[in-house]
Design brief:
By secondary structure, the protein is an all-alpha fold. The protein has helices at 2-20, 26-48, 55-72, 76-89, 96-109, 115-125, 138-187, 202-231, 235-238, 241-262, 266-270, 280-292, 294-307. The longest helix has 50 residues, at 138-187. It starts with a helix and ends with a helix.
């Protein structure tokens, strides 16, 4: 029992340090370990040299120092880029046989890349060892590794963007859920009987419609962000905070518009909806649907436009 308690306490301490002290986070520890391991490789290269150091070793050490400086400032993306560049410089010290091994690795790894990047990598390192043979140069392997690392860097950048978007949307979702809970607590007693349509004033009902419209629009935005990053080539457009917030505002506006439309004679005359409204919860369900999908409100507007 004591061992289980001590293990639980150690895990709590680990996550506590990771939250309040960024240097203990798994991301920082991962790159910090990679930098320390590669420094050992550079030290071994130093001992192998009898005279002046090769230029690539000097440049690699400068990049390692730059990476550590960026890491202290919390710039993980910049730190990884400096580390990868230092790793690529090691190619200029490889023999022909070592270059062929790197080329084989790049060919196998190219299946993870997009089509144009895969073609570019294979044009540099060939489809098989006999493509270049002894003519394979360090510059070719270096450029192929650069294309591969750019792909992974872009994927990491997209992950950071989507993480920031989801963090904002989940915070808004929690806030709107709290407002919905407060709204229900103030306007509806906890009882099993149905609430009549005239039990709330128009002002109170509009507030409820607004909160449910915001809740539906935010839920829709969460799903939209998760899907939109897969097909876009420019993630900054999707991650724009104004575009995200505009979807939420428009969804809430549609929810209020549907409520006002149902209060007019147009809904009955044009038969926009095939069901009847009997209680405020019906308005709230419609408000959530209007905020969640734009097509729901747009179809109602289209029916009015077609009638005119």
């Amino acid at each position: 029992m004591c061992k289980k308690q001590s293990k639980s306490i150690s895990w709590i301490c680990f996550w506590w340090r990771a939250i309040w002290y960024p240097e203990y986070s798994p991301k920082v520890r991962r790159i910090s370990g990679s930098l320390s391991a590669f420094e050992k490789v550079l030290d071994r290269k130093d001992r192998q040299e009898t005279g002046m150091l090769k230029p690539w070793v000097i440049n690699a050490k400068e990049l390692i120092e730059k990476s550590r400086a960026e890491l202290k400032m919390g710039k993980l993306d910049e730190a990884w880029k400096c580390f990868h560049e230092a790793k690529r410089l090691e190619i200029y010290d490889c023999s022909t046989s070592e270059l062929i091994v790197h080329a084989r690795i790049l060919r196998e790894e190219s299946v993870k890349l997009k089509e144009w990047r895969r073609k570019a990598v294979l044009s540099l390192v060939g489809n098989e060892d006999s493509s270049f043979g002894t003519c394979l140069t360090s510059e070719q392997v270096y450029r192929a590794m650069l294309i591969r690392d750019e792909h992974y860097s872009n994927q990491y950048h997209k992950n950071n963007l989507i993480r920031g978007q989801l963090r904002l949307l989940l915070l808004l979702l929690i806030v709107f859920l709290m407002f919905v809970f407060i709204y229900f607590h103030r306007n509806f007693p906890f009882r099993s009987t149905l609430i009549r349509e005239d039990s709330l004033s128009h002002c109170s009902c509009i507030w409820g419609v607004l909160w449910f419209g915001l809740l539906g629009a935010t839920s829709s935005a969460v799903l939209y962000v998760r899907k939109s990053y897969k097909g876009t080539r420019i993630p900054e457009i999707v991650s724009n905070v104004y575009i995200t917030l505009s979807r939420i505002v428009i969804g809430a506006a549609f929810a209020v518009m549907i409520y006002i439309l149902l209060k007019t004679n147009l809904a009955a005359e044009l038969k926009i909806f095939s069901f009847e409204i009997s209680q405020p919860f019906d308005y709230f369900a419609l408000a959530f649907s209007s905020g969640f999908t734009e097509r729901f409100a747009l179809s109602a507007i289209q029916k009015i436009a077609d009638k005119e």
